[in-house]
Amino acid sequence: MGTVCPSPLAVLVLLFICLEASVASSSGVPLYKNPSATVEARVQDLLQRMTLEEKVGQMMQIERSVANPSIIQKNFVGRILSGGGSVPKDRASPTDWMDMVDGFQKAALSTRLGIPLMYGIDAVHGHNNVYGATIFPHNIGLGCTRDPDLARRIGEATALEVRGTGIQYVFAPCIAVCRSPSWGRC
Fold this sequence. Notes:
Blueprint: H1 8-26, H2 39-49, H3 52-59, E1 61-63, H4 69-75, E2 79-82, H5 94-109, E3 118-121, H6 139-145, H7 148-163, E4 169-170
Organism: Ceratopteris richardii (Triangle waterfern)
Pfam family, one: Glyco_hydro_3
GO biological process, one term: glucan catabolic process
């Protein structure tokens, strides 16, 4: 009976995989934090490290009014939302917003896996929760202008103001068929 000899290519592939794994583990940096690794490899590594509680926490989105560093750390909160009128304090300046979002982010990064949180806000007609921000017409008013370029420029201005407060994503613009013009997102 003959012996089976693995192909040189198979040996090289196996050697490369072992070498990559040993380099990743010897560097002390988890694979999911290695920017040169593929997205798929990073996601797989992170998911394997996460507990069920951490996975559930990452799927949660809580309102800003109930968020604090302790809740973020204890529950592994993945997202926070400031809905309409949800502000850190009366007449909150862009700096107040940035300080608040930064504090929440530091709490998320201090957890076991250091997963950053996503912070979202309703800014359907400008960054209207920030004192002194530029306020634009609601979508129904923009639609009446029949000027797509104006809507684009308003979106760009809103994006700059939102990003300037440390917030990464916005629940706007809303493209919907309105059934009632009294609805705020029309």
